[in-house]
Design goal:
This protein is of the alpha/beta class and 263 residues long. It has two domains: 71 residues, Ribosomal protein L30/S12 (60s Ribosomal Protein L30, Chain: A, 2-Layer Sandwich); 164 residues, Alpha/beta knot. Helices cover 35% and strands 18% of the residues. It contains nine helices and eleven strands. Keywords: Methyltransferase, Transferase. One of its GO terms (molecular function) is RNA methyltransferase activity.
Length: 263
């Protein structure tokens, strides 16, 4: 497992929400929902009887946006400005449909290279991986909606802006999406210590989706089972695991090396 072991340090204070990551007020959020704008989630004042807020709740639910009813004090902690009982958390990037991105890559004559991140929760790891992926020409990053790093302005900064350029798909059911990617003609290669072959001896030239696991417990067993190949990174030193960001860089650039050597 390529991980970043958690140490028993005192937990750091929760970072403050960046002003750029929120939208507040009844009319701005109502208009944003009507225009189809994406939201991570909405917080609505628990005891509100405002009809417009009730309509916002209905619109958000229809759009599949998570809505939480919270006390006014919680809203005030997020912003002291006139939120009118509703705050929306705006994603720092716009998410894409994975099938559309893969289809476009095929249409443009490219050999798709997709990176699937199974529950990578550390924002710095995620940002570093996105930066590596964008530099290496990865076509798409796929993450689950639940149990993944929060992609806010901190993640964008950590990625050195790469998240503004590489498509990211955030999906409800990661296993089902990975099966659909496989059906689109991509081989599934899980990077795991359970692999029987070193990554350098696995053919990565064709359309490929590379799966990387969480910092704590690696790749979900369901994804391992449906993978076409299991690749391991050989270890020589006394430390038996790599940070997931470093491991992702190793296999992504190995795929690039193979493709360039045989172009």
């Amino acid at each position: 497992m390529y991980d970043n072991k958690k140490k028993h340090y005192q937990r750091s204070p929760r970072p403050k929400t960046n002003a750029d990551d929120i939208m507040y007020g009844i009319q701005p959020i109502f208009e944003a929902l009507e225009a189809g704008k994406q939201f991570e989630k909405l917080f609505i004042q628990r005891d509100s009887s405002n009809e417009s807020i009730a309509e916002i709740h209905k619109m958000a639910t229809r759009a599949g946006i998570v809505v939480s009813r919270v006390p006014q004090e919680k809203l005030q902690r997020i912003t002291s400005k006139n939120h009118q009982g509703v705050i929306g958390f705006v994603p720092a990037i716009n998410y894409v449909d994975p099938q559309n991105v893969i289809a476009t890559a095929y249409e443009e004559g490219k050999v798709p290279l997709v990176l699937v991140l199974d529950r990578v929760t550390d924002v710095r790891n995620f940002g570093a991986i996105a930066r590596t992926a964008e530099c290496a020409g990865v076509n798409l990053i796929v993450i689950p909606k639940k149990g993944s790093a929060q992609i806010g302005s901190d993640a964008v900064r950590t990625s050195a802006g790469a998240l503004n350029h590489i498509p990211v798909a955030r999906v409800d059911n990661l296993t089902q999406t990975v099966i659909e990617i496989q059906e689109a003609g991509l081989q599934l290669v899980s990077c795991t210590e359970k692999g029987s072959k070193d990554v350098y001896y696995i053919d990565l030239e064709g359309p490929t989706a590379i799966i990387m696991g969480s910092e704590e417990d690696g790749i979900n067993s369901e994804l391992i089972q449906i993978s076409d190949k299991l690749a391991k990174i050989p270890m020589i030193g006394k430390v038996s695991s790599l940070n997931v960001g470093v491991a992702a860089g190793v296999i992504i650039f190995e795929a690039n090396r193979q493709r360039m050597m045989n172009a």
